[in-house]
Specification:
By secondary structure, the chain is α+β, with helices and mostly antiparallel strands. It has 11 helices and 13 strands. It starts with a helix and ends in an 18-residue tail after the last strand. The structure holds FE2/S2 (inorganic) cluster. Residues 264, 266-267, 269, 283, 285-286, 288, 301-303 line the site of FE2/S2 (inorganic) cluster.
Length: 340
């Protein structure tokens, strides 16, 4: 009687499919014809290889031939391409045709062997290891054992030290910028210092720390790419009465001029758009919107904290300078989950 378990067994192991005889299996003429077809395909592949060799050796590099629709074509490259394509295509076709018509197609079942070694092999292995350990005599030679352990331990230290060469940690890198107390604000591009009186109400300027102040002067006056990535600041001038800031934040402005890091506090894009009427800064990446009048407070979008504000003032000549470095890290705040 057929049971459910019998049914499942037959689904799990259907066994080899019944062999269906092909024409070449039963008819010698069909077999001969299939053999000739395979030989022709191999021969065509050989023709392709010869065409490739001929094109490479005998066709000059500057010969062009006209082909309808395709126009003038480089003859040598055309020959190489067609030769390679023919060679590979007919080689594959010959192999497939041979396998399908002439090769034995009887299914062979190859059962997997158990991966586990036999008990005898395992015992042999353990015995060999024990004999090896006994031969080394580590148990008896305590001095060698200890000095070896110490040297291996010390050997592991240099790679740890070399980790320092991978550069500073990202958090530390973003915590420090080239803005220092007294650093002049210069235009980007142009590197010109800015007089507070140069800025009109409503204007926005992108600025960088002056190179002379950032320690990059002398033989290498160019800015480092990493500095360009984290130093940019947006300078915006409002009417002083437009601000709605805490006394500390207000003290960081100068006569209506306020400075914010240009690096978005969401994922680090450049905050590039300023709406003069609403006094909002917009990040084009995910539309975080910052209210300039309220210290770049986030009023829309995924950013978790305001843009860091740079404390600015003027020097004796009236040029805008940083009064202090940024008091918080610039850029993305993914490590500061609690910041607001
Ligand atoms: S990077 Fe600015 S909103 Fe996402």
């Amino acid at each position: 009687m057929r049971t459910v378990s019998n049914e499942i067994e037959s689904i799990k192991d259907p066994g080899p499919a019944p062999h269906v005889l092909r024409a070449a299996d039963v008819n010698p003429r069909s077999e001969k014809r299939a053999e000739q077809q395979v030989a022709i395909l191999f021969a065509l592949s050989g023709v392709g290889s010869l065409l490739l060799i001929y094109s490479y050796v005998f066709i000059a590099n500057d010969v062009f031939i006209f082909i309808p629709v395709m126009g003038n074509q480089h003859a040598q490259q055309l020959g190489l391409g067609i030769g390679m394509a023919m060679s590979l295509f007919f080689l594959g076709m010959a192999a497939i045709h041979w396998a399908k018509t002439l090769m034995s197609e009887t299914e062979v079942v190859n059962h997997r062997h158990e991966f586990r070694s036999s008990d005898e092999d395992r015992e042999d292995f353990i015995k060999t290891v024990k004999e090896g350990v006994a031969g080394v005599q580590l148990g008896r030679r305590k001095l060698i054992k200890r000095s070896m352990a110490a040297s291996i331990g010390l050997f592991a230290l240099p790679p740890v030290l070399l980790l320092r060469d991978l550069g500073p940690l990202p958090k530390k890198q973003l915590e420090t910028t080239n803005w220092k107390s007294g650093t002049r604000l210069v235009t980007d591009p142009g590197d010109r210092p800015i007089l507070a009186s140069d800025l009109e109400v409503g204007s926005v300027v992108q600025v960088l720390p002056a190179i002379a102040e950032s320690g990059e002067k002398g033989e290498h006056p160019e800015r480092l790419l990493s500095d360009i990535a984290k130093d940019p600041v947006l300078l915006i001038r409002l009417r002083p009465e437009d601000f709605n800031l805490t006394p500390e934040k207000l003290a960081m402005t100068h006569e209506g001029i306020i400075a914010f890091s240009k690096i978005c506090s969401h994922m680090g894009c450049a905050v590039a758009l300023y709406e003069q009427t609403t006094k909002h800064l917009l990040c084009p990446c995910h539309q975080s919107t910052f209210d300039v009048t309220r210290g770049a407070k986030v009023i829309f979008g995924p950013a978790a904290r305001p843009l860091p504000q740079l404390d600015i003032t003027i020097d004796a000549e009236g040029y805008l300078i940083a009064r202090a470095p940024f008091s918080e890290s610039v850029g993305p705040s993914y490590w500061e989950r609690n910041s607001q």
